[in-house]
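ok so i was messing around last nite and threw this chain in just to see what happens. nothing serious, just curious
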Amino acid sequence: MRARLLAGLAAGLLALAATPALAGQTLDAVRQNGVVRCGVPTAVAGMARPDSRGRWVGLHADICRAVAAAALGDAEKVRFVPVTAQSRFTALQSGEVDLLVYVTALTLARDATMGLSQVAPYFYTGQGFLVRRSLNVSHASELDGATVCSTQGSIVERNLADFAQRARIRLTTIAYDTQANVVAAFIAGRCDAISNDMISLSANRLSAPDPDAFILLPELISKEPQGALVRNGDAEWAVLVRWSIFALIQAEEFGLTRENVVATRASTADPEIRRFLGLSENVGAGLGLRDDWAFQIVRQVGDYGTLYETHAGARGLGLERGLNRLWNQGGLMMSWLWQ
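result:
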């Protein structure tokens, strides 16, 4: 009897292990709603903001579209929900949005205390300085005695204090309640500099009345990998969002673009690319995804390299690609194994 029970238990465990993972409650809700609700900044150039026709554009917006292409087969089935630095985490925790693609650094405190899961980084940056050209400085170490506008109680303030102590310089911080007020005070001349991640600073400079009146200093005083966030408790949704980002990165590594992916899918004999495009097997079946979900991401949204250059690089914010190059080109961008 005992032997039969053990054999039955072993068979049950094997059957359970062979059963594909369920899609998860968030994906079920997304499919029922017919849209992915994506929390994005209210308006950050190069990342997420409405264009003159009201269409959301930017790297963040396209990451949201990639998730929609995977989950729903249609990259345009996204409801963009503008959130602020103060409301972004609450919007995700409360279920107002399905994922958060904001200018958000991945930190231990956020991972450990907010009930949120951080998925794959999509942008490597750090905190720097935007200063008035008339200040006549070219390096952060020359800011001794400067005033810096900052968001009250933010990690930016703490990083400024740490940097000033390390560099043995004196910085006077003028705190404001919101980032919008920080930028307004800086443009109005109430401080010599502002400090934030380089994405935000580049966008602030481009949106200023006279961008040439301001310069970005070259130094970074912190490391800030930026990533998408989802709620804890739905591992399948976290995996889907993670691999949607990886699909953009892997597409660039394979040389796939919106322009060539259809022709490549029809002609390629490369086993890795065939697997990626869903021609030989469906590596996303355990998440309830169709076999061509990664193909749909590339066909409808594109590849990471093109998106970077369009939104953050030469055609966008003007940021050097740097650490955001592919791993085989001296950067940190890497998809996990596609198998």
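not much to say yet. The longest strand covers residues 116-125.
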